[in-house]
Design a protein that fits this description.
heterotetramer; A mainly alpha (about 325); B mainly alpha (about 350); C alpha/beta (about 650); D alpha/beta (about 270); A: about 325 residues; two-stranded antiparallel ribbon; 13 helices; about 5% strand; B: about 350 residues; mainly alpha; two-stranded antiparallel sheet; globular
Chain lengths: ~325, ~350, ~650, ~270
């Protein structure tokens, strides 16, 4: 057996079988980037659920929060103080967005709001570069007491390396998700947020104004962005090219559905693991670099068969 | 104020269906055309150095106006959002490059027009999912096109004739004995060439959007279910919008590389450019050809003028000004969406309306 | 007269002119009508074909020479053509007011014994059907617009189009017969019969011959150099002599281009589109335009208001003189040019008057500030004085001799004299033949030498030779102390205030004058809005004390102005009230041309008149009204009566 | 079995033709919810047919079935003597069925005339090349259809709003524009979804007049749904009454009004 069928259908699996340690390593790498995709997607979902806005700026918020943190530290602010100030900045950002943008665009079509968030993206890019400069920066990993180094696992003679940063990333992400879940189910504000997602009128009965809800969700999305920014920054570096990578949250959303938190996580993992596997085992057939588009094409194919996403409900069109 | 419409009555539908039924509008257009054709090529823009005015402003603005018209057909007239514009322009550029390689003797104008068809075909292909998916989901589909095509521009070496630099370098070509492409081409010649394309493509776009085809697009945009119940076939209509839009993008991409840049790498077609074009369309006005002109001119010249002004007046570092103008454009986008979601075109319409009923207010 | 003496007489009937035009102007536009969104255009040759075919169709259903054929509807080409066709077959067209109620229509149809009716649409057809029982002479009806008429019994009902088709298939004998009939038309054939609404009593049928119409039209066209390039908008009732002369007589003899609006609601929009070069409107339309301009300017920002005021002030200074060709200083001229660009031209454009070369107003006295406003913009607006019996023209203002307080010099070929009682008499080629079936009235109005009494009192101004009209001759009465009583003169002065829509002055045989005032809902309503005066109805607004204060001020201003003229000083208004309802033609209080019927009003509101004279401060009254749909109802009100301050007359005569 | 070829004579003397469309035992479900249960009736050439019922009676669903937008789980739709397979909406439009919508589905970005022109979309055939040149045949075609649309605009007396963007029109006029758009399709069967909902008395009268005029002038078969019984009684030749998805009665307005089940269903619900 030879030719294209062999290359596509048999050889990659054979490789996986022959080098299980490498396969596990690839899976792990994919898992970690999947977690990060999921985090970014989570930010989208939070905002979309609460306000129906497709927040294109979520990706840049990741970069912006990371930059702010690093930038503050570079100015001599101690790491954890900088972290708290950055949280404050994200709150101010959420507040300003609500005040200056959302409030003025209530009842506009979704597409207008979407485009407004593209405008917001521009502001954050320009503003970020203006204040912190456009060059690549390293994350203050050690200062934030994020473990570095690595552990090695040797299953059956092979070798699998686990970066401590990655483990930390996975754990923090998991904690954040659990935290958010608790926030939504246990706190009054969280329950109100869920109510709003179903019915905008409901918020009034809970006694929280829609405007407050928006600030809270945008702030929550900001926190998620900050965590993603730190973790991602620690793995690679903080730079504006991250923004393009952050766009991969979109295919994640397509897979998981725009309003589903579990969907975002599952989608993130599928994309993260899938694209690593594809890049390593099938990529050479195309000449590498397929990571750039794999996620989108998968999402596209997926869309054609299940437009509502993995966890979405079937849409009944009405006249 | 300038309008004298009394006595301009229409005795046939053809008169009504002209592009500019009001005499004063026709005069206005004629004046603009005269400036564009007889003043700019010889004198550039007032207050700016000639070569700079042509190379950095006029030529790209004309080219991007074609892009903006194309994107507007898709986004503004048909309501399908696209973030793949940059890549579709790339398809046009690479197609043009390959065609000149294979047909070195064919007139470059014909080649550029033909390369649009390649782009149209690719655009229609990526438009296929639009039948099943709508809105934000479509954004993902067009991003897929963007990133996949970007990847192709790097990995498929055949596209750039296996040039080790990975870039396409434009050969010199002549039209009517005048050099129009390559470093030796005069700015005025290149400007007039792209302007010629713009005028032709504007007329065609104007014709399309006023007729059956354009109505089909707008029906889909405004209310797709009703459109279907009236007999519009959604697939055919959407694909035609994707194809026409991509044709415009393809032609403008080919012009961009061949007549303006002279050489190009994949960066010229990346997703950031796609955003830029989308801004032009939003800012100028969704669903307006006039708006595409205004949007392209504004979004392109604004940062340049900011930089120039910053340098000349306050001696500010151009990089800072670039960031300032990014923020400014972002803020302007938000502002215009809040104040007038239909962009500059609508503002112009309001002004025009005021002028028509001057001295009254309404 | 320089013009006149039967300018270029060649042809003796309108159908003859139609043929002449078809030859001379062939493919030039003759009629336009806005329909289906565009101005449908017919050339003179097309019109000739349609009119001839329809005439054959008329013969086919039995129209005979001398028959009366009623024409009812709004201004549309098909109705003008119908009149031509009717004339072709030797019958007499009788245009009627389209908004006349069925019984008014019934009287006219019965009086002339119309055998045929050509109606615009279902509404008019229904009206005639309603009264056909009382019309033994009526035989067939023809309609233009088939909408809603499909299910009607078509044994006596025909569609204009289908008759035209029948006509086009007519036999050679029929065609020859038509030619014979056309050939027999001459100056003495009756051209049209127009019913005058008459300020009192039943309408009278004024018979006008081809001589009347053709010569009047020719003379007047020559007077103003009207040519076949002129665009006119036909929007005034087709039954009114003015429209008949402008849209039919003048249109036929020189080939004016007649444009008919899309519907009544779109007249002002259509006016803007067409931009006529020759325009006629009664004073109330100019007044409404000015009111609208003033109100719309008030809605603009401070800058535009100042700009407007600045240039309009300048225009009122030099606009008139410039139009009259008088010499004006260079700087003033330059400033006027600037104003032309910023204000005058755009204003004329929005009003649709940009291209007006000759404009006329007549029928009522026009407020001087209204008249001057339009002239200062550079619109050549002039006045004429005329009536149905004169085929319109008695006196006209030549270019360069235009004033708001005169009505001009005698029209070409027209002689004017003032009778002993001050009444104006004229003799002209346009003077009517007779009142149909009414020899007494004819004899009362027209003497053996052809002099016609206008019924108006006036005098010829010394030096200029211009005629000035005071009032209806019979309305010029005497107060019980013998002083002159000219109610209309006073009423007009009152009506020049934009806030006052109508005024009715009483005083004949009494020792002083009193008045009813009708406020203008538009103007006063706007005024109320600006001054935060709340009101829920016309009645409430008209009774508001502040409104009364305002009206009182106007009345007292008029008193001062009236007192300046010693002869009329007795006409000052001592007491007045503001009526609780608008005077309305449907209630018989006004004529269809919106002239007040003083006598009828005096009788109908007798209680109010006596209250005005008995010194009471308020009066309760009940009034019967007719609603738009024809139902009748009753409204009640308690009206306040005010005393107005009187001015001292400045001559010894009045002081007695 | 009803005679499907012979027509009948309506109250006002109009001759009503044979069966145009027949619904046979239609049942429609959404998931577990049953919207329509075993409903059967026919629509005849040239008649004005009303489907009435209180809110939630399944009228709109029924209209969507006639319209081919919903495909019933059980039952058959027969159109002009043929059983109609399920087909995409645009093919239904090609068969000559036009409709208006309860919640007005005008093209908000266009003016009145442009909206009406969309109704001619199916009849415009000139290809893309002519379209982009907008010359010769394409322009002639455009003019021809524009003229037809203007006639409809004239017919519905909306000349004054010809060039107004529809979004800024009052509700009643929007309804009229929608009717104009449907008429521009020159449909054989016109479906009106609550044509008078939300209108004041005067607007209702106008709309009734237009519906009658359309039927009279163009001979269009009309099926309309309406929840207000009084409106329908003067308008319709025959009425089907639905309640909770079930058919209560079918007959002339007089018959239906006397039907006890109908009276019961309407008592306490309306009026």
């Amino acid at each position: 057996m030879s030719g294209i069928f062999y290359d596509v259908l048999a050889d990659p699996f054979l490789q996986m079988w022959q080098m299980p340690d490498f396969f596990i390593q690839v899976l792990w790498e994919g898992f970690v980037s999947g977690i990060l995709y999921a985090l970014i997607a989570l930010g989208f979902v939070l905002i979309f659920k609460a306000s129906g806005i497709f927040n294109f700026a979520q990706g840049i918020m990741v970069v912006f929060s990371g930059l702010t943190l690093v930038g503050l530290h570079a100015l001599g602010v101690p790491a954890f103080v900088a972290l708290i100030i950055t949280l404050g900045v994200m709150y101010v950002l959420a507040y300003l967005v609500e005040r200056l943008v959302l409030r003025n665009l209530v009842n506009q079509p979704d597409i207008i709001l979407f485009m407004a968030t593209i405008g917001l993206t521009n502001i954050l890019i320009g503003g970020g570069q203006w204040i912190f400069g456009g060059e690549t920066k390293s994350m203050i990993t050690a200062e934030l007491m994020i473990p570095t180094g690595s552990s090695v696992w040797e299953p059956g003679g092979g070798i699998v390396i686990f970066q401590h940063i990655d483990i930390a990333a996975a754990l923090i992400a998991a904690m954040l998700i659990v935290g958010l879940a608790l926030f939504f189910s246990k706190t009054k504000v969280g329950r109100a947020l869920r109510a709003v997602a179903d019915d905008h009128q409901a918020s009034l009965s809970v006694g929280i104004s829609l405007n407050q809800i928006w600030v809270i969700t945008w702030f929550a999305a900001g926190i998620v962005a900050l965590v993603a920014g730190i973790m991602w920054g620690a793995r690679s570096d903080v730079s504006f090219s991250l923004q393009i990578i952050a766009l991969k949250a979109l295919p994640v959303l397509v897979l998981g559905g725009f309003t589903s938190v579990p969907g975002a996580i599952v989608g993130g993992l599928i994309i993260g693991i899938g694209e690593k596997l594809f890049e390593i085992y099938w990529g050479p057939l195309f000449g590498s670099g397929v990571e750039g588009w794999f996620a989108y094409v998968i999402a596209l194919v997926f869309l054609l068969f299940r437009p509502q996403g993995l966890f979405g409900e079937k849409i009944i069109e009405r006249v | 104020m300038f309008y004298r419409e009394a006595g301009q009555f229409k005795t046939s539908y053809k008169q009504y269906m002209q592009a500019f039924p009001i005499r004063e509008d026709r005069i206005g257009i004629a004046i603009w055309l005269a400036i564009a054709l007889f003043y700019v090529p010889f004198f550039g823009l007032p207050g700016l150095e000639y070569t700079f005015a042509m190379n950095a402003i006029m030529i790209p603005v004309v080219i991007f106006t074609i892009t903006a018209i194309g994107l507007n057909i898709l986004v503004g007239f048909t309501g399908q959002i696209s973030l793949g514009t940059g890549a579709f322009m790339g398809v046009g550029a690479y197609a043009c490059y390959k065609l000149t390689t294979y047909f070195p003797d064919v007139n470059i104008i014909i080649i550029i027009l033909a390369s649009g068809f390649v782009s149209a075909a690719v655009g229609a292909m990526f438009g296929l999912p639009s039948l099943r998916i709508k809105g934000f989901y479509l954004v993902v589909a067009t991003l897929a096109a963007q990133f996949f095509l970007e990847w192709c521009f790097i990995r498929v070496e055949w596209l750039y004739n296996y040039n080790p630099s990975g870039a396409i370098e434009v050969p010199q070509r002549e039209v009517f004995g005048l050099i129009v492409t390559g470093a030796a081409a005069e700015p005025a010649t290149r400007y007039l060439m792209v302007l010629g394309f713009l005028i032709l493509l504007t007329i065609i776009a104007g014709n399309l959007v006023r007729g059956r085809v354009g109505r089909g697009w707008m029906m889909i945009r405004d209310m797709d279910i009703a459109a279907e119940l009236i007999g519009v076939r959604p697939l055919r209509t959407k694909l035609s919008a994707f194809a026409v839009s991509s044709y415009y993008c393809g032609v403008s991409g080919a012009l961009m590389v061949f007549v303006w840049l002279g050489a190009a790498e994949v960066e010229s077609f990346d997703v950031n450019h796609s955003f830029l074009y989308l801004f032009m369309v939003i800012f100028g006005g969704l669903g307006s050809i006039t708006g595409s002109y205004m949007g392209a001119a504004f979004i392109w010249t604004f940062p340049i003028l900011m930089k120039e002004m910053g340098k000349r007046l306050f001696d500010i570092d151009p990089i800072i000004m670039e960031n300032v103008s990014l923020v400014a454009i972002g803020a302007l986008i938000v502002f215009i969406l809040i104040k007038e979601p239909h962009g500059l075109a609508r503002l112009w319409q309001l002004v025009k309306q005021k002028l028509r009923i001057w001295p009254f207010a309404h | 007269m320089e013009t006149g003496k039967y300018a270029d007489i060649a042809l003796q009937s309108i159908p003859a002119y139609l043929r002449h035009n078809a030859k001379r102007l062939g493919d030039a536009p003759a009629f336009r009508e806005k329909e289906f969104g565009v101005w449908q255009t017919w050339t003179w040759s097309q019109v000739e074909k349609i009119v001839t075919d329809f005439a054959l169709g008329l013969m086919d259903i039995g129209v005979k020479e001398g028959d009366f054929v009623a024409i009812i509807g709004r201004n549309r080409p098909a109705l003008y053509w119908s009149m031509m066709s009717v004339q072709m077959v030797g019958a007499v067209p009788v245009p009627l007011y389209q908004d006349a109620v069925a019984e008014e229509m019934g009287y006219v149809l019965g009086h002339c014994g119309a055998r045929f009716v050509i109606a615009d649409d279902q509404e008019q057809v229904d009206k005639v059907l309603e009264i056909q029982g009382n019309l033994p002479d009526l035989q067939q009806m023809i309609y233009i617009d088939p909408r809603g008429l499909r299910k009607y019994d078509h044994s006596k009902l025909h569609h204009f189009k289908s008759m035209q088709e029948t006509g086009s298939l007519a036999s050679e004998e029929a065609k020859a017969e038509l030619e014979r009939r056309i050939a027999e038309l001459n100056f003495d054939t009756v051209c049209v019969m127009l019913y005058t609404s008459g300020t009192t009593g039943r309408p009278k049928g004024v018979v006008l011959s081809n001589r009347n119409i053709v010569i009047s039209s020719l003379n007047s066209c020559k007077f103003d150099n009207l040519t076949d390039k002129e665009e006119i908008l036909s929007y005034l009732p087709i039954a009114w002599v003015g429209d008949f002369i402008f849209s039919f007589g003048q249109a036929a003899v020189v080939g004016l281009r007649v444009n008919c609006p899309e519907s009544r609601e779109t007249v002002s929009a259509d006016l803007r589109e067409i931009g006529p070069s020759y325009y006629f409107a009664p004073p109330r339309i100019f007044e409404a335009m000015l009111t609208a301009v003033v109100l719309r300017i008030e809605d603009t920002g401070a800058f535009k208001q100042r700009l407007y005021k600045y240039f309009m002030d300048h225009a009122s200074k030099v606009g008139g003189p410039l139009l009259d060709g008088k010499s004006v200083g260079f700087w003033d001229r330059l400033k006027y040019r600037l104003g032309e660009f910023f204000i005058y031209a755009p204003l004329k454009n929005t009003l649709g008057l940009s291209r007006v070369r000759v404009g006329y107003t007549a029928g009522e006295a026009i407020g001087p500030e209204i008249f001057d406003f339009f002239r200062s913009l550079g619109i050549n607006l002039k006045q004429l004085y005329g009536q149905t019996e004169a085929s319109v023209f008695i006196t006209v203002q030549p270019d360069g001799e235009v004033r708001s307080d005169t009505v001009g010099i005698p029209a070409p070929d027209t002689e004017v004299r003032i009778g002993e009682n001050g009444e104006v008499y004229y003799r002209s080629p346009g003077a009517f033949v007779e009142y149909y079936k009414n020899p007494e009235s004819t004899a009362e109005t027209k003497d053996g030498e052809g002099w016609v009494a206008t019924g108006d009192a006036g005098f010829i101004e010394e030096g200029t030779g211009h005629l000035r009209i005071i009032d209806r001759a019979k309305d010029v009465g005497k107060l019980s102390n013998g002083a002159m009583f000219a109610p209309k003169y006073v009423e007009n002065k009152l009506k020049f205030f934009p806030n006052i829509l109508e005024a009715v002055v009483f005083g004949a045989g009494r020792d002083h004058c009193v008045a009813f005032i009708n406020i203008d809902l538009n103007a006063v309503g706007n005024w109320a809005e600006r001054n935060n005066i709340a009101y829920s109805s016309y009645q409430e607004l008209s009774g508001h004390p502040k409104v009364l204060d305002m009206v009182q001020e106007h009345v007292e201003t008029v008193n001062r102005s009236v007192a300046e003229d010693a002869m009329l000083a007795g006409c000052q208004i001592h007491r007045f009230l503001v009526l609780h309802k608008e005077l309305d033609a449907d209630d018989g209080e006004m004529t269809r041309t919106r002239k007040v019927r003083r006598k009828i009003i005096g009788e109908k509101f007798g209680d109010l008149v006596s209250a005005l004279y008995d010194g009471s401060q308020q009066i309760y009254t009940e009034t019967e009204v007719t609603y738009e749909d024809g139902r009748k109802g009753k409204i009640t009100a308690t009206l306040e009566i005010r005393d107005a301050a009187l001015a001292n007359a400045n001559s010894a005569l009045a002081a007695e | 079995m009803k005679d499907t070829t012979q027509g009948y004579v309506a109250e006002d003397g109009r001759h009503i033709g044979g069966v145009m469309m027949e619904m046979k035992n239609i049942t429609l479900r959404f998931g577990g919810v049953v919207a329509i249960t075993d409903v059967s009736f026919d629509i005849r050439e040239g008649e004005i047919r009303a489907i009435i019922g209180p809110n939630g009676a399944g009228k709109s669903s029924m209209l969507n079935v006639i319209n081919g937008f919903y495909h019933p789980q059980e039952g058959e739709v027969w159109f002009r003597g043929k059983k109609r397979p399920s087909m995409p909406p645009y093919e239904i439009a090609e068969q000559g069925i036009a409709r208006t919508f309860q919640n007005i589905a005008l093209f908000k970005g266009m003016t009145t005339i442009e909206n009406v022109m969309t109704g001619r979309q199916l009849m415009m055939k000139k290809n893309f090349l002519w379209q982009l040149l907008r010359l010769g045949p394409a322009l002639d075609e455009e003019v021809k259809h524009r003229r037809r649309c203007e006639e409809i605009i004239d017919f519905l007396e909306i000349q004054a709003i010809r060039n107004t963007p529809v979004g800024s029109l009052p509700y009643g006029l929007q309804k009229r524009v929608e009717l104009a758009r449907a008429l521009a399709m020159e449909p054989k069967l016109l479906l009106l979804d609550e044509p008078m909902a939300g209108m004041n008395v005067e607007e209702k009268e106008d709309m009734s007049r237009f519906i009658l005029d359309v039927n009279d002038q163009y001979g269009t078969t009309i099926a309309l749904i309406e929840h207000d019984m009084s409106v329908v009684m003067d308008l319709a030749d025959r009425v089907v009454v639905l309640d909770y998805g079930k058919q209560l009665a079918d007959g002339t307005p007089d018959e239906v009004q006397k039907n006890q089940a109908v009276i019961d269903a309407y008592l306490g619900v309306e009026h």
